[in-house]
Write a structure and sequence with these properties.
414 residues; eight-stranded mixed β-sheet; 35% helix; globular
Amino acid sequence: MTPSFTSESEKSLDYSKNPLILTLNAGSSSLKFAIFSQFPPGLVRISYGQWERLNLKDPRLNWYDFHQNKHDSIPFPIEKNVSPAEICISWLAQKLSASTLLAIGHRVVHGGDRFYSPTLVDETVLQSLEQLIPLAPDHLPAELELIQSCKKSFPGTKQIACFDTAFHHTLPSYARTLSLPRRFAEQGIHRFGFHGLSYSYLQSVLNKEFPGIAQKKIIMAHLGNGCSMCALEHGRSIDTTMSFTPCAGVPMGSRSGDIDPGLLRYFHEHLQLNPEQMNEIFLHQSGLKGVSGLSSDIRDLLAQKELPQVREALDWFAYQLRKAIGALTAALGGLDALVFSGGMGEHCAWLRQAIIQPLAYLGLALDTKKNEENATVISPDPTSKFAPSTIPILVIPTNEEKQIAEESVLVAQK
């Protein structure tokens, strides 16, 4: 059953008659959507929303209609034993006519070794994606369920899978190879890398707005609840911190990042933890949340940084991120620009300063005022005789939904 709502802004939305693209981004307990219209000369986002707490007792929908300048936040009841994905998609189907939809674009975390570009989803593709579930068991099931729900609510509408791993298909073999016996590499076990849709979007912004540095040696830091970094040269990924899974690499909000594999044996033999319990620890109880003992949200931690364990967690986090920048600089053989993005990367001036100040030896420095303002360029003006840095440091808001929409249009129009 589709829930009924009484909110005034739940009435039919006044969407443009231009073709629309719906983008969907499924998480373990949330679902984001965005609606784009093809206004010349490009795509314009006209609505955006997110369902939160879908696995809890009080799910909620927050959404914005930019076309009508409306915002609403409403309870979103979901009956027991009913698929949240199906209910959410049914709500969207009430607002959108399938005849106006050019395509539905899905963020799919893992494409394995088969999918290197956005792909039109058919039964053969679905079967192939189901075979990849062991590579991303915490993500792919929800994403595939969403595709199936869209098939029911929007029959005949083209669905496009856009892959987070695709951007890193350019990794050289020495960057892809894990320190394991070769037989495992022959079974497809290697570094894949993630956050590719974010990095693709950021590279497109550099190409348009900073063409002078876009093809040089660049490190991008996507710092949100999930954190990763990517080294790019000539606009291509040559190394990245995430590995076979999105849990690897630098520490994150609640994910551990790289850990000693010997811990697995210790946890199992001495703490009697099973694989599910260990997975829960590494994915949901570690990172900033685990080390601080308080929260995965850096805003909460900065508000209580007088607590010794919180201050230690913040310093530890910045230190780990600095180490990753040093490693990727070595991989690139130099550094021409550094880009911050993601929730923390875009909005947390403290974190950017804590990362950059000890890296002066690389030629990096901040303009304090610009950094506090979250300006696009937060490094000193290179033309100033007082500037200690000529390496641009940029803050670029990511837009994975826009990247999904653009990739989906290209496939849908073929």
